[in-house]
Amino acid sequence: MPASEKIRKKVGDLPHKPGVYLMKDRFGTVIYVGKARDLRKRVSQYFHPSRRHGWDLKLAALIEAIHDFDTHIVKSDAESVLLEGRLIKDFRPRYNVSFRDDKRFLLLKINLNDAVPRFTLTRIRQDDGAKYFGPFASSGALRRTLTMVRRKFNLRGCRPLNPTEHDYKHCLHAHLKDCTAPCIANVTREQYLLQVNAACDFMGGQCSDMKEELETAMKKAAERLDFEKAAELRDLIDDLKRTTKKTSKFPRMPYTLPVALDPDKDLIELGKALKLECPPERIEGYDISNISGTLAVSSMVSFKNGRPDRANYRRFRIKTVVGQDDFACMAETIYRRYRRLLQDIEKKKKDEAEADSQYLLHGVEPPEEADKPEAELKLGLKTKSPKPSKSTAKLPDLILIDGGKGQLNAACAQLARLGLQNIPTIGLAKEFEEIYFPGKSSPLRLGLDSNALKMLQRVRDESHRFANTYNAQLRIKKISESLLDEFPGIGDNRKLALLKKFGSVQRLRLATLEQLCEVEGFGQKSAAALKRFLEARQAE
Hints:
Blueprint: H1 3-12, E1 19-24, E2 30-36, H2 39-46, H3 57-65, E3 68-73, H4 77-91, E4 106-110, E5 120-122, E6 131-136, H5 139-153, H6 165-169, H7 172-175, H8 189-203, H9 208-223, H10 227-244, H11 263-273, E7 282-291, E8 294-304, E9 307-308, E10 314-317, H12 326-361, H13 372-379, E11 398-402, H14 405-417, E12 425-429, E13 434-436, E14 444-445, H15 451-480, H16 492-502, H17 505-510, H18 513-517, H19 524-536
Parallel strand pairs: 7-11, 11-12
Antiparallel strand pairs: 1-2, 1-3, 4-5, 4-6, 7-8, 8-9, 8-10, 12-13, 13-14
Helix pairs in contact: 5-10, 9-10, 11-15, 12-14
């Protein structure tokens, strides 16, 4: 069935329900993610004849590239916003602009193990024993609802971890009676926890009484012709409904990196375009990822017969480069990768030679690899058979560097240093999709519809995705270390001293009081306070 007929049939089968749609090109790559209140109406608009001749060139290019689409039905508009943001971060589609950064939706957090618990806003869900609500599609509605909740349940809104009488003197919330002021023992901790738990139930959706009170007050204000007050209450009711409405948790979508329609044909075309002796069976692609010179990482992806070989993916944390220097990062990556690979190949040859020597000692020719187990059993040999592994120590048929002349020259210099200058190596510059060769000044430009170029683009894009994913993981890990920032009075020097001695917050949790006192800047009192702070945030 032609693509146009297939799409037309799928559009006709779509329901009139809210959801998210994913547009895909002919390789199955997700190129656009959108949300809709009515899936059938929204998706059908893309394929109306007038859309192809509109003034928006970006939209026209998107429509021209659509080969298929998928949809996911949700319960509400809020869920469609959350799912859309999740999918855009997962796939980073070419035609999406919003949600492509690493910013996340707001969560509401409260740690009941604190001495005086309080609600705070965060974007990272940590395994710290705290209770989380959300994520919330509307940050404005959440903030306004949180203000109302604090007033209704008389909860504190101040920042100190353990508020004192000194904080009370300057606390506007306590003087306005919005807070029961547990800092001056107006209420016991048990009484205050009852208020907190009631607020947690409220945020969990048990808020029907509050909605009824607000609706009654809104109607009375309208009867008094106080329309401004009625409008304010109406908006507050809307915020409350949006914030307390239950939303689903969306698992990672079961999409994988798309392969070509005919990978073998593309490899033959690639071999001819690059003037290789034969189509490259194994291709390794490299990319660098860093943010202003920090958390510099690199990735290596492996494609076998035109398909991703994920068992042989590798990622590297840059060790020797200071600052932002992509050329030096690429040089370090190439040297570390192929030095290790050569060592593995040499070790494999040595193990095979030792195994074969045992057969020769018995006057038997070494059998084929598949026949060795049976031969060993007959002769009673105990050879060191390597454990089965998906990883293979084998040099690639083609190396692809993401970048132009600079990155390519840095990689080739390291390959020559290791005696591997005979491996075909190229660079692919993204701006004009130009292919650079070692020692040649002018690049090769293949047509954008060339299957050989599309094969290289798939390798390059996968290495880029893999590097960015690793960089994002390191950034999230670094953000999680900011738990120490919540400890009152800690500065950068003392935080650095703690992390330098213990390495991570996880190890810091296991430290004894005596070990904490050994850290510069910590005495018996401050070490004990830090210990209590970490125990309060210990994962349940």
